[in-house]
Specification:
Elements (H helix, E strand, L loop, with lengths): L18 H11 L2 H8 L6 H12 E4 L13 E3 L2 E3 L3 E3 L12 H12 L3 E3 L7 H6 L5 E5 L5 H14 L3 E5 L9 H6 L17 H5 L7 H9 L6 H10 L4 E6 L2 H9 L4 E4 L13 H12 L4 E4 L6 H9 L4 E4 L1 H32 L5 H4 L3 E4 L2
Parallel strand pairs: 4-11, 5-6, 6-7, 7-8, 8-9, 9-10, 10-11
Antiparallel strand pairs: 1-12, 2-3
Helix pairs in contact: 1-14, 4-14, 11-12, 13-14
This protein binds flavin mononucleotide.
Pfam family, one: FMN_dh
Protein name: 4-hydroxymandelate oxidase
Keywords: Flavoprotein, FMN, Oxidoreductase
Length: 373
């Protein structure tokens, strides 16, 4: 796998004017199988496409004569003020995209004033990523077969100063990602799961035709069964704010709220897990109706612009996780690329608030939406 030469950190060849432009830049520099790993979904990618289609169907009814000149974009998530109601979604193996990997994206998030969610499958150690940014880092936990290892990761996240814990509950097994299987996708030797003991690393690096080595590796280390009792154990083990990511059914959101979590993330993993799951924009209003008065409700999957953030707010979300566009931006320009993408998102969000007559994101949550355009 060869990575094409790319602009030095701090420069971008062209000036992207939308997050989609970063995808075009990334595609030019990334090996085809890395592009596929990041951009693809599971199965025939029905859910991947549904996420976008559902967001596109959400029309937001603007208010006029509101006298708003410069809306504020700042918001409070989990009790902490930030520059906009956005956080960087947890995403594995960021050194696949750029040698600077997680520390670069975390630093960009810190500079932009938004939290960075650090994946269990980070290719840089927790401590190195936290040290690279002035901003808050939330630790994302995948439940591992080895409970002692889970406890060790939690201890390390606490000791490093992570500000919240996010447990992902939609990966009992990795979704069948056909692009990766067709590509016989395996991690290059320099990209490792830096927070896990090295014993199973060879599995992620063994290229086999027709098989995703990443799927084989996660199958070996992830716990295939996760229950509400495990969530209760986790709640009892940390005083940090706890988020559960991967909720779609409002009944699960109610159980999570009953279990004492601080937030749910309505997510279908960007269409990478159960292909056939509904779009998150479809389920978000039901989840907000079920638990929005008790806990925070965040959403991800398919968000590609400030307009999409505004749509999510208008559907009742308190915050949004931004995923793939930031990996594309990281690939295109390292830390500077990711920062440019977050700056662009802030501009788009501010424009959206202005154009819908909102003084701040809180007002956007009171806008009416219509589906069907
Ligand atoms: C390359 C890649 C790696 C990911 N790794 C993780 C992960 O380690 N943990 C996790 O909870 N979610 C992971 N996700 C899912 C994201 O957190 C998020 O739910 C998804 O990307 C949102 O969809 P979007 O990219 O279309 O915005 C990953 C997504 C991508 C694209």
């Amino acid at each position: 796998m060869t990575v094409a030469p790319r602009p030095a950190d701090g420069q971008l060849d062209q000036s992207p004017v939308s997050l989609a432009d970063f995808a075009d830049l990334a595609r030019e520099v990334l090996p085809a199988e890395v592009w596929d790993f990041v951009s693809g979904g599971s199965g025939v990618e029905t859910t991947l496409a549904a996420n976008r289609a559902a967001l596109d169907r959400v029309a937001v009814l603007p208010r006029v004569l509101a006298g708003v000149e410069q809306p504020r974009t700042d918001a409070v998530l989990l009790g902490r003020a930030q520059s906009m109601p956005v956080a960087v979604a947890p995403m594995a193996y960021q050194r696949l995209l750029h040698p600077d990997g997680e520390p670069a994206l975390a630093a960009a998030a810190g500079a932009a004033g938004v939290p960075y969610v650090l994946s269990t499958l980070s290719s840089a150690p927790i401590e190195e990523v936290v040290a690279a940014t002035d901003g808050p880092v939330w630790f994302q936990l995948y439940w591992l077969r080895d409970r002692a290892l889970v406890a060790d990761l939690l201890d390390r996240a606490h000791a490093a100063g992570c500000a919240a814990l996010m447990v992902t509950v939609d990966v009992p097994v990795l979704g069948r990602r056909l692009r990766d299987a067709r590509n016989g996708f395996a991690l290059p030797p320099e990209v490792i799961a830096a927070n896990l003991p090295g014993g199973r690393d060879d599995l992620a690096h063994a290229g086999t035709p027709g098989v995703s080595a990443v799927a084989v590796h996660t199958g070996a280390v992830f716990a295939p069964v996760l229950t509400w009792a495990d969530l209760a154990w986790l709640r009892g083990r940390t005083r940090l704010p706890l988020l559960v990511k991967g909720i779609l059914d409002p009944r699960d959101a109610v159980r999570a709220a009953d279990a004492g979590v601080d937030a749910v993330v309505v997510s279908n993993h960007g269409g990478r897990q159960f292909d056939g799951a509904p779009a998150t924009a479809t389920m978000l209003p039901e989840v907000v109706a079920a638990v929005g008065d008790r806990i925070e409700v965040l959403v991800d999957s398919g968000v590609r612009s400030g307009t999409d953030v505004l749509r999510a707010l208008a559907l009742g979300a308190t915050g949004v996780l931004l995923g793939r566009p930031l990996l594309w931006a990281l690939a295109a320009g390292g830390r500077a690329g990711a920062q440019a993408a977050l700056d662009l998102l802030a501009v788009e969000l501010r424009d959206g608030l202005t154009l819908t007559g909102c003084a701040d994101p809180g007002q956007a949550r009171r806008l009416r939406t219509l589906t069907g355009g």
